[in-house]
Queue: 4 jobs
Job 1
Amino acid sequence: MRAPGDILLISCYELGHQPFHLASLCAMLQQAGYAPATVDTAVETLTEVAISRARLVAISVPMHTALRLGQQVALRVRSINPSASICFYGLYALLNADYLLLDTIDAAIGGEYEGPFLNYVAAVEQGKTESIAGVATRQFKSGPWIKRTSFIAPVRLDLPSPDHYARLETNGVASLAGYTETTRGCKHTCLHCPITPIYHGRFFAVPVEIVLADIRTQVKQGVGHITFGDPDFFNGPGHAMRITRALHQEFPGITFDATIKIEHLLKHRHLLPELKSLGCAFIVSAVESLNDNVLRHLDKGHTSADVAEAIELMAQVGIPLRPSLMPFSPWETLESYITLLNFFEERRLIEQIDPVHFSIRLLVPPGSALLDTVDSPQWLGELDSAAFTYRWRHPDSRMDALYEKVAALVERAERAKASPIETFFHIKAMALAISGKDVDVVEAVQEYGSPRVLPHLTESWFC
């Protein structure tokens, strides 16, 4: 499998970024003497010629959306080139391996995938794929591979250029946005997070020089902003600060964003002014809900009061906080959903939240830590393997109905490029209508006034 195109690496979706998980695996393969072809179906056409040429096809599935798209790609590959070996790798591969291995794929790798994948390539070459550590197959059950990778800088030059992907918009100016990761895994174990059943609280730091080399490559391609895609940038705050200081010293005009837990923003508040001075354009934080009962069930590590304090803190520092939400879960109530909406309206924070976040519903993939909670029999339904999640119904049927309406509204608004402020008040009108109240959307939009224009990425989907 040393000939060009014998190995085909495919990405379907990485949140509007140039696919990091293609670039990372491609680097490892090239170092080992292989010549993989790469296709990002989010912006490129996957041709029958590329599929027919491949002996091994590896599809990156780092998130649920990528998994659903990847399954369709795998089925197409199977129909065109039935002799090719198909491997899924990434966070969602191993969680759903039992179903996928029935007839869709031949192998699944979770955790630190590069090493096991190289071993799988060698096994395919030799025709001996029965038992490879870290690789689940029909013949061999394997858990995730959680051992430190010998990191090397990702190879990006064969990928579509950054101008095919998301941009940072600031004051009407758009900059090409790049993406990298400074750590793998997460030391926290939030019960709903898909990282938890794979990494179980472990994380690995990527060497500073590797991260900077990856950023240099992207800056040469015209990138003016970097997203640090770690599940939590402050898993290792010292490591994060070393990287951002080095980044600013070498490229003082480059801005960045990162994802940081509410509890870490509060604990490490003394670092935030320096982050601002180093070029932090905004921070994403997984708020999820303002219902303390929900937060306890998710083991989030923060309270609604902590969220309010963090938002005030970030305003003082001058870094916009962009909360990510998951407001539809078995423990959310209609009243707490309306309270959530009121919270962001009263504090004039609507501009800081992409409307899609008001429609996110809890996903419970196979292996989820939520399956082992004491109360799960009270709300958990059957596994829908084809949908890659357990089904559940809200104890208040009104919340399921509201979810359907809000999700449809947000999707329509996204397609129409509607005003986020207007979309927000339509959502609020839907929620209030269920409780017998109403709101004049036009009047509410006018009363809210002109929205602030804050730094944001042009890709708003986070799951």
Job 2
Amino acid sequence: MKNFDVVVIGGGAGGLFAASVANVLGAKTVIVEKKRLGGDCTWFGCMPSKAILKCASVANLLKRASDFGLSFGASLSVDASGVLKHVRDVVGEIATHHPNEVFQKRGIEIIIGAPKFINKNTIEVNDQKIISKKFIICTGSHPVILPIEGLNNINYLTNENIFDLDVLPKSLIVLGGGPIGVELSQALARLGVKVSIVEMMDRILFREDKEVAEVLESALEDDGIDIFSGKKAIKFAENSGLVVVTLEDKNGKKEEISAENVLIAVGRAPNLDGLCLEAAGIKYSKKGVDVDAFLRTTNKGVFACGDISGPYQFSHVAAYQASICVRNALFIRLAHQKVNYTNVAWATFTEPELAHLGLTEEEAKAKYSNVKVYRNEYGASDRAVTDLEKDGLVKIITDKKGYILGAHIVGAHSSELMQGLLIAKSSRLPLSKIAPMLFIYPTLSELIKKTSAKTLVEKMGNPVIKYVINALKKI
């Protein structure tokens, strides 16, 4: 039997961060991980998807060479046979950044095995009992597989096995128009796969601001992707080596589409199996572990973060939650901190990228009165013109006092551009305060300055402001 101050269950983004912080604060810490350190982001999610997106971006850029006045002489063709091996090599290199030995040298013990609670302060792993004062659960999530007729009879793909393929399929049906489905759809389409997206909602990326999502949807269609929105898959079957999917719209009208394989990307479910949370008095549902504003479970000695507790399934949110879990687990109640999701931002790493911060226009108008919306096209940026990246939009939503309620950018490097607006929103900086700042020229970030400047132009129309300006003029 071993005793610890903190047991971290799960070695993904949240778990590694939590264990590192707890160790720095002097707590005797152990990470219990079922398989290997790194989590879904390293092995199946963020890293392999970004690697294949980069491959696809290079392939697409080569195809656009003539747009830049370049010619390679003979016709250019893309051989994507080595892409999946390259992706696995990239993942393997990133995995070397967090081997067991690195954490063990810091004094963090690593135990590989499947843990289960046997009471409120004890887990069992590899037939060994571990007692701890505090636990932090961050076991991540796995792809949701819907109970659709015939699906279990085919060798479908998910983000957990698609990168194990040696050869890309010639055609693919992607079930789900969320970030995972959309990113992989564009990457594979640009590498020569004929892709069809099936989305049950009326549009893809339904959580995004509609106006910016439409820009991305148009770009996906330009890449040759067929989008079947407002339709759900109700049956799968195999016929002559192809997967046949029966779709049904809201009116009950059916149609069939076919491809070599199907990628399931309809969402993710928390990894709860085998933890025996009931033994520890921890309440949970199929959505995950129940936590309060301090990320405590119904067992006050157990905290949870990341995909298992929600409400957002992003690595950066998991790390943020992990820091709060450690603080609240180790410090006295006076120093406890509540979680705050007011300034959560994220991005979909397609081309163009789509970045999201705060409320959409629709959400803001439903919650506040006198909402103001400021827009700027990417074509207003000289750098966008030089880079042939004119397709894009910056959209910033404020309240009547000019404080940012939400920001949505679709365009090149939008995930980087969003960081400045994230800082401004988090710091309660009115949009008008950004405009006078000195931005580097020529950069895409000038789009933020140009959009912010619209608030000053708007103020110039105020009769009082006009009077003051005229009174101060020397000429």
Job 3
Amino acid sequence: MPTKQELADWLDERQERFTAISDAIWARPEVALGEEAACALQAETLAAEGFAITRDVGGLPTAFVAEWGAGRPIIGLLGEYDALPGLSQRSQPTQDPIVAEGPGHGCGHNLLGTAGLAAALALQAWLRETGRPGTVRYYGCPAEETIVGKVFMARDGAFDDLDAALTWHPWWFNSASKGSFLAVDNLKFRFRGQTAHAAAQPEQGRSALDAVELMNVGANFLREHMPEKARIHYVITNGGGAPNVVPDEAEVWYFVRAPERGQVEALTARVRKIAEGAALMTETAVEEHYQCGAYNVLPNRALADLALAAMGELGPIAFTDAEQDYAQRIADGYPAGTREAGIRSLDLPLDFLERALDGAVHPALDEGKVQPGSTDVADVSWITPTVQVMTTCWPMGIPGHSWGIVATGAMSIGHKGMLYAAQTLALTAADLFSDPAHLARARAEFAAATGGRPYRSPLPAGAAPPAPARR
């Protein structure tokens, strides 16, 4: 397998094996930090092929690193496998959960992790046959949906010696990212007051729920005084047990986002003051439980150009008329205007909606932009040059974290996007192993962008991983 084409062919010939792994993870969706079966399946698959496995990375039972080879460069492939609560869905183009309120792979992470694993195995075979020096590493990363896994892994130095990191994400079209994502803080505030009979002795009560609601009011007034692209989201996770009992415990869960890590930290400081003020107003006590935080993504254009060149060599994904029809039926299942709103939100041309599935290769359409979401890939991007590829795995314009994504994750549309991603990652990594100039350009760009500022974990000293998300 001396040529890159043969590397791509190697993956194509073994696609049924990788499809079976992905479908097994899809059929048993596990939410953040609870991905025992997915983690075991991937780790055991790589161990059987001779990869050395390190488990419990970052203090996370469902995180592992698989390594093969010797010497430099050391190229990392980042994988994920967590599902989302409440997104159970059958593999069909109409909405219908398998289990009511059950979890589902509404972000395609069953595909995401499996493509990274497949690329790692392909690179192992390629390095063996070519006799080139180098180390390939696959990172099994849990809990991306709660912005946790890679941050704890990074804190413990899991990525420190990488020469570059490659990853991907299922998406509407094929491209490589040159843009950024929002930095984020993920934290909970628990208020404690004094219970009382709400009718007979209300004056004896100190309502923790009142404190939560006053905090939310304060946060909503803060919105006028935030950077333009900053976001604050919250959900009340505990509001008391009954309306005739003054709640002595209540909790609210916040995400604070902004384009840069420093902006998030400044906003979070203000949110903390609002929580303290709410406690003061209600004569309650407040405890903060910091779940995690993540940086904004630091793009690497040199790596993105290399990945785009690999896509150019592969050509577009060919979707059949039956697949186009399946995707169109999914798209038609969303309210009118949903897809248009998704396209407009990213400043993409509306002619992207002409077909339900777009298999073409597009240039980086996000250069200079900050996407509205967040990802723990960002922390890796501040440690080593990192690129994130996107490939077509679901209908154009449908919203993330929704049923239509689950509906394509265990059939040919998702399978084709996954294989294409594995091939793109493998070809890109092969270029890095083959030609030191590619890696030199990526690392020079990284050094200039970081300006000598070392990565500093956003986690407080001694922070422990949060409990697994609800199932």
Job 4
Amino acid sequence: MTPAPSPNFDARPEGSPIDHLVLHYTGMLSAQAAISRLCDPAAKVSSHYVVDEDGTVYALVAEAKRAWHAGVSYWRGVRALNNRSIGIEIVNPGHEWGYRAFPKAQMLAVRDLCRGILSRHPIPARNLVGHSDIAPDRKQDPGELFDWQWLAGQGVGFWTDAMGEPRDLMQDLAAIGYDVSLPEAAVITAFQRRFLPGSVSGVADEVTRKRAAGVLETL
């Protein structure tokens, strides 16, 4: 763990639990550029940790404090997720700068970091989410190349291969946790990035409807 303290934090609301873990990608050209921004008081953004592609983990904000990573957000009836989450920024150029797969060393470091966080806080598996899950109209990260299935197989987060009987897709996505008051295509795209990474279309097709039903039935 490498210290890289950021001034961009404040106190969590009194009594707020830490029961969400949010994964992001940095969307910048280098780890140093991302850390510089996350530590810049003028930027007013931060995360608790940054994980570089070589597996180096940088600690920016103490877990007990509120980092500013989620922005306007919603999951399972909860808004303003900065109040009750820990945020991890994973170094990757993102869709704007040359999105690419996450290296093995980086994924192993993310796994180990998450395991440590989960040992300290009662975060249910379904509350380990991507930024696109909690802000689908604004964010794409960590994106369809992030291996949620592998991570869940390592005991971190949730995955299922289940397909269910197709039904009302938006009702199912709401029950899973998404904010379905947002544009439909954005919400569907976010779900596909997470659970159908090979079919990110934003279209409510039969496969997506079956997949959402299967996810919901397994939760």
